[in-house]
Amino acid sequence: MDGVLTQDGIGEGDGLERLWTPYRMAYIRGENKPSDPSETKCPFCRVPMLEDAEGLVVHRGETCFVVLNLYPYAPGHMMVCPYRHVAGYVETTDEEAAEMAVLTKQAVRTLAGVSQAEGFNIGMNQGTAGGAGIAAHLHQHIVPRWVGDQNFMPIIGRTKTLPQLLTDTRELLAKAWAENA
């Protein structure tokens, strides 16, 4: 089988190239993770105080905002966050919960239009035990998906590839959001 790459065990060379993704190391080290659950340390409380481009904000609503995930699972991975520092979904006001739903629907529409996403993962991880990376501030993930998008890279290479800079993605999505709102 000339020309076929195989993996013959741990420690054996496999002939595969490696992609350098240094931005992931900050996430692995927890460099941007709040040191305590207070509002002053919370990135979701600080982001709305920044300019949209700097904070990767795609859209601002009345009670919630939409922001790109700094460590995305897939290109265009957005989150809907209430402005208010609240940890649990049941703690949201009726207005916050309603706007989260409306903004989530608009995020799906926007991503489908811009990226031709074929599906979506939508959800919230609540509490540390529930998998929340930042458990003190509620956020809903909207992750675009495509058939075959989970190839060998995340499984074998423990690497996710993104085709464009987050700032470029934010600009593209914010423009499409405003045009289709």
Short description:
By secondary structure, this protein is an alpha+beta fold. The protein is built from six helices and five strands; from the N terminus they run αααβββαββαα.
Write the layout of secondary structure elements.
Elements: H1 23-29, H2 43-46, H3 52-55, E1 57-60, E2 64-68, E3 78-82, H4 94-115, E4 119-123, E5 140-145, H5 152-155, H6 166-180
Antiparallel strand pairs: 1-2, 2-3, 3-5, 4-5
Helix pairs in contact: 4-6
Textual characterization of the structure:
By secondary structure, the protein is an alpha+beta fold. Helices cover 31% and strands 14% of the residues. A 5-stranded antiparallel β-sheet has the order 1-2-3-5-4.
User: How many beta-strand segments?
Assistant: 5
- Average per-residue pLDDT, rounded, comes to 80
Strand order of the largest sheet: 1-2-3-5-4
Please summarize the sheet with the most strands.
5 strands, antiparallel
The total of helices stands at: 6
pLDDT < 50 stretches: 5-12, 16-20
Separation, N- and C-terminal Cα atoms: 55 Å
Beta-strand level of the residues, as a percent range?
A: 5-15%
Please give a handful of descriptors for the protein shown.
181 residues; five-stranded antiparallel sheet; 6 helices; 14% strand
